[in-house]
Amino acid sequence: MSEDGGTGLAQLSTMEIDAILAALPHRYPFLMIDRIIDIDGDNSAVGIKNVTYNEPQFQGHFPGEPIFPGVLIIEGMAQTAGAIVINLENQSGGKHIVYLLTIDNVKFRKPARPGDKLEYHIRKIHRRKTVGRYEAKAIVDGVVYAEAEIGAMIVKENA
Prior knowledge:
Helices cover 18% and strands 43% of the residues. With 159 residues, it is an alpha+beta fold. The chain has a single domain, classed as Thiol Ester Dehydrase, Chain A. The strands form two sheets. It has a seven-stranded antiparallel sheet. Strands 1-2 form a two-stranded antiparallel sheet. The N terminus is likely disordered.
């Protein structure tokens, strides 16, 4: 997060795919975000996942009725939260990794399908030292498809 010319007002920023790959250890086919927008430090962000029919999970989930697996929606939310935390932590020096600790209050409201643009809306609930908790919602065209609370631990990697 950067500041606006000393005014103390945060500027929202974006992480394109190269920055996401630098922040997270995940790779195809398990990287569940394409871009992150509206990043405000580790306070909030919106991850973007464009669901396409040619993804490998649709071969078996389900033939003739392709539905993006709910667990992958949760993973996308967790990756979005992790990427913004790592991005912020790495600015202070060193290299960090985030480990998923908890997934609570999960609700699936509507199935995501090929052609959907999932937006993972992440908002920090609280953070104490190395442990953070985030509210996450998966939204398509203004409709909430899934929601959860995600707990994570931030660890500095050894060189």
